Amino acid sequence: MDRITPEHRSWNMSRIRSGNTKPERLVRSLLHRMGYRFRLHRKDLPGRPDIVLPGRRAVVLVHGCYWHRHSGCRFAYTPKSNLAFWQDKFNENVNRDQRQYARLRELGWSVITVWECETKELTTLAERLLREMPNLAPSPTAC
Length: 143
Ligand SMILES: [Zn+2]
Known about the structure:
By secondary structure, the protein is α+β, with helices and mostly antiparallel strands. The chain has helices at residues 6-17, 22-33, 83-106, 122-132, and strands at 39-40, 51-53, 58-63, 110-115. It has a single domain, classed as VSR Endonuclease (Endonuclease, Chain A, 3-Layer(aba) Sandwich), CATH 3.40.960.10.
């Protein structure tokens, strides 16, 4: 029984789409309006982080609440069928996120995780980003 299930197919699709999702685009345009300079998907950093602010040595990760299991969030519901399959995928994602976070921190980067549900309240999100963004003076070599 190795036929691809509809769940598996939609899982594959979600992996293909990830990297240019609507929440990520919203966060990018918000940061842009706030005057932050950033780069996308730097391949030389662990996990190719979505948004990198070299001048502040900060990384912004935009996470879908469902796939990345936003704790306590109503969008991170658990499916009723194929529970074992989903649980595996969720665990993989959460473990990958934790490893990426730890490796970035080890390299001296600040990491701000933005959840998909937060992109529905951009004013509140902007306030949080302002609060949590490290306040480094831009280095002369920053782009
Ligand atoms: Zn959420």
